[in-house]
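quick one, two chains, predict together pls
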Amino acid sequence: MTDIVAAPAVALRRPRLRLAAWMLILPAAAFLLVLMVYPVGALLALSGMSRDGLHLSLENYVRLFATPVYLRVLGITFKCALWTTILSVLLSYPVAYLIATSADRTKARLTFWVLLPFWTSFLVRAFAWIVLLGRNGVINQLLQALGITDAPATLLYTFSAVMVGMMHALMPLCIVTMTSVMENIDGNLARAALTLGARPGSTFWRIYFPLSMPGVAAGGLLVFITSLGFFITPALLGGPRDIMLTQVIIQQVQELLNWPFAGALSMLLLVSVFVIFAVYDRVFGVSTLAGAPAGTGGREAGPRRGRLLSRAGEAVLAVLGRVTDAAGSLLAPLAGTAANRRRRPVGRWLLAACVVLILVFLGLPAFLMLPMSFTSVGVLDWPPKGFSLEWYRTFWGSTTWLAATTRSFEVGFLTAGLAMLIGTPAAFGIMRGLRRGSGIVLGFLLSPLIVPRIVISIALFYLYARLELVGTTLGLVLGHTILAIPYVVVTVMAVLKTYDQRYDHAAWSLGANRLKCLWHVTLPLLRAGLIAAFLFAFITSFDELTIALFVTGGLSATLPKQMWDSAVLQVNPTLAAASTLLLVIITCAILLASWLGRRDRALHG
Amino acid sequence: MSTAVATAATAATATRGAPKLAVDRVSKRYGSVTALHETSLQLHQGEFLTLLGPSGSGKTTLLMMVAGLVEPDSGTILIDGREATYAPPFKRDIGMVFQNYALFPHLSIFENIAFPLRMRRRPEALVKSEVARVLELVQLPHVADRLPRQLSGGQQQRIALARCIVYRPSIILMDEPLGALDKKLRDQLQIEIKHLHRQIGSTILYVTHDQQETLTMSDRVCLMNHGRVEQLGTPHDLYFRPQTVFAADFLGDSNILPASVAGADGEAMLAIRLPGFEGALRAPRRPGIGNSVRVMIRPESLRLAQQPEPGWNALPAVVTEMIFAGGVTRYIMKVPGGQQMVLADLTMETSMSVELGREVTVQWRPESTILLPGDEGSAA
């Protein structure tokens, strides 16, 4: 076995390996091409047609930009997205910072409290805000009890309510994204800065903060583009004056049946998202979305990037550092200044206190529905009166609710199965064979997270209507699978990243062929990660409303669709019971995933 | 230091002045694990002291406490005679070189080195000239505008050094700074660091688990094990006069055999018996050693012979293995009592080839025999 003999064999193997990798990616890519790219393309193409769909026309765009109402809607949509983004980033930063700089145990606990609302239904959380912000809601009662206001203030159905709801819905995503960047910042850098004479304030602003900027940008980007395509929260919490672009799209499709104009609105939404995305890529590079801190990869931040601008930035950071240090020295008497006495980490305590408040803001609404579901009266007022299981009885007694629940499980399992079947090979293909083009492929497979859900939904509706798939389980499963593929790919890629491929090499050397090695070695070792991916796909489907809203009808509703339909009529305690059920099921799934993950890490070091 | 020793060492102390660093009975526990038992240590102006030990021996904990990155549970730390036990790192006037260099990835090499000067608000002109001076010193004057990741590992290490010496800290702490480099580069940088140390007269506390590095660089070595100081002395001391089995075993190669003291043999010598061997061996007396002992002989002190020379210690042996390792050839032998010994000899082209399995005599000078406490428990 000399090198001379081995060389041609290697040369022969490489292209075959790459071909195999493409074959693994093919099913997922084809799936998205057929069920996302094609229908969305068709929908966008419609925007260039006249109302009757018979000839080419720019009338939809003329109408869009000439009608003040639509420009106003656009303005509100962007304003809301912008404020949501700014506030989310500001409140997420301290949480992400604390998680990233904590010891493992604390880190795991904090992460759990962030992930729980992350996976908790948008719908349940929107209901919770209705209860919190209503005229007789928790907050109004609190304000009056404290004597701050005399009469109930109008909190619900306002722009602020929408913003709080959206912030609440999207902050977990922001925190998770920021944390992944911050965790990759070497802790020794801050230590080095301290030993070099920098005070904590300067250390933070001059070293940590610039390195965490890609995380801030990535988190902000995801919040911004997601909130542009949001409609559950504005529809439930917003007033008639706070109509968003998504709501207008739905109105055009459902009420006016004006598909070409809906296409034009979708085009506007999609173009906005992609422009923002492209700008982000120019400045930071998409790789930072996957958690690379500044200066370690991604775009070269070399001398080309405006010297003047970076000088100005450095000066600002230097001033911020000094201001923080000055503020810190005011705290010094509390912390203790003597060199022979232990210092108290006062700054850290303050940070922890802030983070606890933010986590309460994130976590509490999810649990609000729990006590509400046991109320003995027929309205969702705080505090719940008495104790009864009446609403659970109503739930169990109703064929509609039970059918919806069963259907959600059915669709959830089928979706998770299908997404695993085509998503797992794709993750293997990207990690194990692609040299060139892996960034583009990954970007494409993750694009269902970027393309606004509402656009995917009505595009599918448009496609299904022609294929007679509307109202079928198959149609819904296919739709949910589009959304679940990115989660499966990301989760499986994450476990593959930590998988030592030498186990495979060992198995091959011991006589196992590829299939046997996969079955006896690789898959068992990856089991916990694969189950987690399955659970995430399941939750994605179980909790999904937007697609369900369009492609299910009447009897074929899923649980979230049934909750939505019932909420449009009246927010009643049965809804609280259903929400509680949803919460319990999803919590169990997350706990299972995180327990498996921990057990796996413990087993494999 | 007791007063008697202090008086005897007055001359030395006068030139050295007060210690740059005085660590007095510091300790640290993490939960139920004691990372460092009460430990005291002094470091003098211009001295290069190495903390050597296996991982988990407490050396890094001790270094981190000196840096102010870990708080001790008890004891005091004085830097330049000033109390610094709980002082924050930025008030200590120390410099630290980290194992992974910890160069700020978003700052240019110039800004990295300028960082400590800017934190001390030095005038811009001085910052420029000082950065240029240290870049010259580490022989990398042309990399000022680059980012850290554009440099090789060895270059990054030199920049980390430059950043540390540019503000002339009172003490420089180094935490396994060469751990991430390959052997050739490590050897070269050891000499460079040593050279810099002499050139700028800095005081260095150095942490490593590499015994070769320790012997090459240090003025004094503090050998640590299980959170305690095992032995403190010059490299020469540690190599030729180890106090414990651990010290003998950790530094260099050694043959350690269980033995017992049979009685006195003159003023300075003791008679020693090995189990399974009738004859007596001789070894220098050593205070504070019981009856049950271990004898330690370095492999390079052993000689093969046909006939034992008078006055030397000798044992019959069977050569079981011969290992050619370039400059040195090792002979592995069985000696009475079933023990194994290793002999190291400089390889010559004319080196005699010993037949495996043949009976030979292995011999060494009695002065090269080192007695160690026999009970292993006392060492740990």
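The radius of gyration of chain B is 25 Å.
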